[in-house]
Every structure is written in structure tokens, then in C-alpha cells.
Amino acid sequence: MGLSQALSTAMSGLRATQAAISLVGSNVANAETPGYVRKSIIQSAGVTGDYGSSVLLHGVDRQLDQYLQAALRTETSGAAYADIRSTFLQNLQNVYGNPAETGTIEDAFNKLLTAFQGLSTSPDSQSARIGAVSAAQTMAQTLNATTQGIQALRANAEMGINDSIVTANNAMAQIAFINNQLQNNGKTDAATASLLDQRDQYITQLSSLMDIRTVVNDLNQVTVFTNSGVQLVGTEAAQLSFNPQGTMTPNTLYNPDPTKSNVGTITINFPHGGSYDLVSTNSIRSGKIAAYLELRDNTLVKAQAQIDQFAAAMSSALSDKTTAGTAAPASVLPAAGYDLDLTGLQSGNVIRVSYKDNTTGITHNLSIVRVDDPSVLPLSNTTTLDPNDEVLGINFSAGMGSVVSQLNAALGSTANLQFSNPSGSTLRVLDDGAPNRSDVLAASVTTTMSSLTSGNAQLPLFTDNGGLYTGALTANGSQQTGLAGRISVNLGLLGDPSRTIVFSTSPLTAAGDTTRSDFILTQLQSGNYRYSPQTGIGTTGAPFTGTLTNFAKQFISQQGEAATAAKQLADGQSVVLNTLQKKVSDASGVNIDDEMAHLLALQNAYSANARVMSSIKQMYDTLIQAM
User: Fold this and answer.
1) Residues 516, 119: contact at Cβ < 8 Å?
2) How many other C-beta atoms can be found within 10 angstroms of the C-beta atom of residue 85?
3) pTM passes above 0.85
4) What residues have CB less than 8 Å from 263, skipping those under 6 apart?
5) 254 φ, ψ to 5°?
6) Hey, which of 58, 134, 510, 562 has its CA 20 to 30 A from 142?
7) DSSP 518-563
């Protein structure tokens, strides 16, 4: 190897050492910079002659474990999802409050029971009557406040989605921008490595919002997809849009049919046209956005359904009266059946007919539901809470003649039943009188009392914003939806608390008569009712059945258990995420001690290369002098 080759080799060594020292300085300077990945020089030996080799520089290497990075992004999505759910469910627990404290649903209900117990003990006491009405007001106000708390949480979830969409759009735009810079650069140098650090930060930010996967090409450009396969960004970024609806109420609900949905949905608009609904297609399955959607459209909706069901069951338990039909007169023989007085039948009230099909031996339990809005017809068998009945919705808006025609058309040929309207509001149901065809076994009608002095113990103690609660069905949905937010005490009772005892004015209820207060207490304390599976308790085939207290304890404890489970999951996800972050930091982060040791080695290498160059200079000087 000649002196010129030796000089060239030494200079290449100096250049490589200088580049490595520069990277060590960058590593040390960015030791605390979030997302910074430790850099090193990529170098190899290059042949410079017959007897030696120089150092070739190929670029900058980022000390990154791709497998750990992918796992970290997956766990970032999962941890963000779990954390949001845990936070919201804990806030929901705060809305319900500690059952042992005042101001909770259980506390208000227990005080309502106590007040009516006191009223039955002292029916003539004006203070006991006022106390009973006041306790009912407190019960209603507690349900109102709980509804407001639940809907406030849903509004927060809607706002969280909106904020997340803004963040996601910015992250995707930055990823696309950096992808294009990499395309123009086309080499792996310090500047390129810095761009990759920045891009990874935006991808990690995006992974906290939704579940994603990435594909990298030969130019180090990345394409980001959702795990469901929707492309979010490449060299161009898609744009997410969200239409927040502002104030949330129990009736603002998500529906895959956009004409029926009245909450915000997320749409992805692709760079070259076309769009896609990410919510109806369940394209986002983890991360903050998925958690917000699940809370807004499922968890908190179910919580609202629970208190609405409680309010509905409590209202109906006190105001609804079921009256058995009277046997049809002998003049209709050989047919047999019952006459039902439909006076006072309200939209949502139910007529029940039990008949046996003698050809099959099957007994059918028929629930005929009064409907005043024909747009909701036909009704499904899940309209009522009886898992064994067959539901038939009948439009009552056109009068009894139309009702009879509808019933005969629906049941005359299939069930061999005959319906008629002999007078007034009487509905007559008969079998066909033929042997071995059908027999009507029983019939009854449930009506909602509207008067405080109907002569019945039933009392419309609670109302729906001043109107009767009857369980009516309309195009806007079930009356039960949001009832807990609208429930109030009957204005007539606020003006005259004596009606908690006096149920008849002609004849006047006897002094000291506790018929009504005893009835109310029994219904509230020991009455057994079915509860909708939409509450998340029980199923359609086996709905939860129990007292109002049983149901309240059931859904409140369920929420408590859900909050605890969510907290445990969030804690577990946090541990996994922190462990992965440490592994990534160990593999890719900057260790100052290691860098200092590396710097000392580079200093020695630099000095050695400089000494070689100095020696070569001396040799050249000697050679020139000899000449």
C-alpha cells in the first residue's frame, strides 16, 4: 500500500469517526426527547488497494425493534380504550353515589317506603300526607338528577369523539407530509432518521385513538390502515369528519340507518373521492374513539334504560289496574267468552286473552296493545315483558268499529275467535262455538287510572311531565325512554296531599281508611314485576323478575362491578404498556453511560487516525527532503 493509499484510508477513518461523534452528540442531546430513537453510523470496509481498505459510510441506522414497536402501538390502543372506559364508569358511579349516602336512588326509595309506612300508621295526619308527597318528589328529583348525570357523560363522550377526530386528522396529515419528504429525499441520513422519529410519534398518537396497522415500502414510506382494513394514510391522507349533535338526551340515540340516527357519526372521506361510515361498519375497534362510541351508544344508554325501567315499573305499579272480563251472556251460546270494559284504556295499555287451540292442544296468551300511532305497527313479541305471550298491536285511533274489524281480520280465521262491540266501550271476545276448535279461557284488561278519586286504590302518583305514563308507543319511540328524566309527582297531589288517602268522594272515603296507602306500600315494597332485558339484566326469554328494591340493587351493583372490572382492566393494560415502553426504551432509547463510553472509544479512534496522517506527513516530508 502506497503512502497516498494510506493517507486516503486514514482520512476515511477520520470522516467516519467525525460522523459517529456527531451522532453521539445528537443522541446525548436528545436523551430526554420523547420519541427519539438512538442513532448509529452504518459503515463497512471498502478496498482501496492490494494491501488495505478504507471505511465506507452508508447512512444512519435507527436502533429500533420493529416487533416491539408494533406491539407497543397495539397496547397503546388497548390502554387508551381501557383508561377512557374506566374513567367514565367511575364517573357514572359518582352519579349514582354510594348507596349508604343520602341523595342516591336507594336512599330516596327507602325514604319513600318509610313515608308511606308512616302514612298508613297515621292516615289522618296532615304532616304524614305531606311527608309522603314530599318523599315522592324527592324520588322523582333523584331520578331526574341521575338522568342529567348520565346524559352529561354521553355529551362528554360525544365531545371526546369530536376532539379525537381533530387530533387524528392532524396526525394523518403529518404522516402523509413526512412520507412525501422521504420520497423526495430517497436516502437514509441523519435528517431522514429525524423525519422517521417524527412520523413514528404521529403514528403512536394515532394508535392511541384507534387500532391501526402499518406497512412500510422500500422508500421508508408508511401506509396506515385500521385493523379492519380501511386505509387511512399513505402519500395522501384521508379526512375524517364528525357531526356532533351537542346536547344529549335519552332520545338522542345512534342508529345504523342515518335517517333514524340523531347522534354524530364518523365518516372517512378518501383523497380521490368516496366515503365510508366507520361507525356502522364497526371499523374502529380499540383506542379512545372506540371507547367513546361504546360508552355513548351502549354502556350509558343501558344505564339510562335501567333507571327509565325503574321509573316506569314504579309508576305503573301504582296507577295500573287489571280487571278480569265478565262472562258473556247466555244469549251468545253456543259460543262462550268474555266482555271487557275498555273505558279508560290508554295508548300502551293491554288487553289479555288466553285461549286454547283444541286442534293442537296449545294454549295461547294473547296481548292486544292499544296503539294510537299506526306508524309503529306491527308490534314485535318483545313489546311486552311477558316471554310467553303473542303481541298484537291494534290501532284505536279510528274507534271501536275499526278495532273490532282489525281483531277479527287478525284472529278470526287463525285463532277462531270472534270480536264484537255490543255497546259503548265494551269489547266482546268469543270462541266460534264449534266443538274441537278453540276455547276462550280468560280475558282481562289493564288500564291506567287518571283520576285521583276514581274509587280505586290505584293512584297516578307519578306522571310523565304532568301527563299519564301508560307505556305508549309512537313514531318517536317508547314513552319509557327518558322517563326518569321527566318523571314528576302528580300536580293534583301537590295541591291536595289528602288524595294519598282519600280515593273516593262519592261515597267519601271513611276517616282512617288506609286502603290506598296500604296498596301503595305493598306495591312499592313487595310487588314483583318483570324488567326489560334492554337494561342488561335478564334476557328476552327469561326477564329479570323481582321487587323494585331488588331491581334497583341489581343494576346499581352491576354498575359498581362494571366500574371495578374496568379499573382492573385499565390497571392491567397500564402495566403491559409500561413494560413494553421500558423494553422499547431499553432497545431504542439513549443510555448516557453507553454513549460516553462510545465517545471515548471514538476519541481514541480519531486520535489514532490523526496520528497515522501525521506519520504519513512526516514520511512525505522526509521523501521530499531526500529528493
Assistant:
1) no
2) 24
3) yes
4) 158, 245, 248, 252, 253, 254, 296, 297
5) -80, 140
6) 562
7) HHHHHHHHH--EE--GGGTSB-SSSB-EE-HHHHHHHHHHHHHHHH
